[in-house]
Amino acid sequence: MAALAALIGCAKSTHTAYVTLPTVNFVSAYRIDNSSGHFTPIAGSPFATGTSPAYIVAHPSGKFVYVSNQGSNDISLFTIDSGTGALAEVMPRTAAGVSPSTMVLDANGSFLYVANQITNDISVFSVNSSSGALTAVAGSPFAAGPTPAGMALTPTGTFLYVTLSNLSSVAAFSINSGVLTPVVGSPFPVGAGPLGVTVDPSGKFLYVGDTLANTLSAFTISSTGALTPVFGSPFAAGTNPVSLTFDPTGAFLYVANLGGTNISGFSIDPTTGAPTVLSKSPYTTGAGPVFLALDTTAKFVLVVNQGANQISAFTISSTGDLSSTPITQPTGSPPKSIAVSK
After folding, report:
1. CB 123 within 8 A of CB 114
2. Cα–Cα dist 291/277, whole Å
3. CA 203 → CA 53, 159, 219, 253, 299, distances in Å?
4. Is the pLDDT at 195 greater than 70, yes or no?
5. What was the pLDDT predicted at 342?
6. Quick count: other Cβ atoms within 10 Å of Cβ 31?
7. Most buried in the list 17, 198, 306, 313, measured by CB within 10 Å?
8. Average pLDDT, stretch 271-297?
9. Residues whose CB falls within 8 Å of the CB of residue 271, separated by 6 or more in sequence, listed in order
10. Which residues pair with 15 in a beta bridge?
11. Model pTM score
């Protein structure tokens, strides 16, 4: 009974995080303390995946995670043990296009979108809410453009935006039951080498990290999904901005700067969408920050530091600034992406 009580207490005071390790074909799993941000490895971790796991997303139900296996051209489905957070893979894996990388799930967990970097298209799957099983929607995969990289959905799941890193542009699609249709005017030009992309929680603005131009492109999103540059865009960013995430209110935007070994923080004007650098930005992190995520408590920004073989958690202050000393956790090999669950 004491062990059961301890487990229940753990579940209430922690949530889970899953990290892809592409060089060793594993996913590491951790409990994150809701108050401190400390990481504790989950028993049985790491868990085997397909070849070169690149990207991981968690289903909003807390029941499943999906991993894009870039080397084996497929998607792994894992069920999450509700008590321990351990993963169990459900076979067989689902075939994707060639070199599947970035993935996004809509807010309801009804559709999964996968960017296939070599076949230059987007695979779309409907998700079975009971089993987590994936079924390709009619017409999938959909042509995207050269080298689709980052992806972002509007909060309502009405539009999908895809950065085309070799074309210095963003492709825009309207969505109808998972079926993608290009938005009139798409693709929209941005700075050189676009990778990371995000939409603010209100669905009004879109931001792109122009990795080779060291800039942040900002747009307003129209009712048709078309993009119009925010006045003053593009804005100066750090060195090689690659990943972006918002706080839950949309007041603050955080950008991982791969070449700068730091995180930039911006406040966002809710009317114009213009970013302003926060007073203590940038925030030093481990070498090679390649991916950012907000944790489920909205207290921490989680950073994947590929060059340092670690992940870290920065506390978000009331002003939006991040803590000067993050909590860190070694991963043993270079991590690529992180997903958080209940």
Report:
1. yes
2. 20
3. 30, 10, 11, 14, 22
4. yes
5. 87
6. 19
7. 17
8. 97
9. none
10. 32
11. 0.95
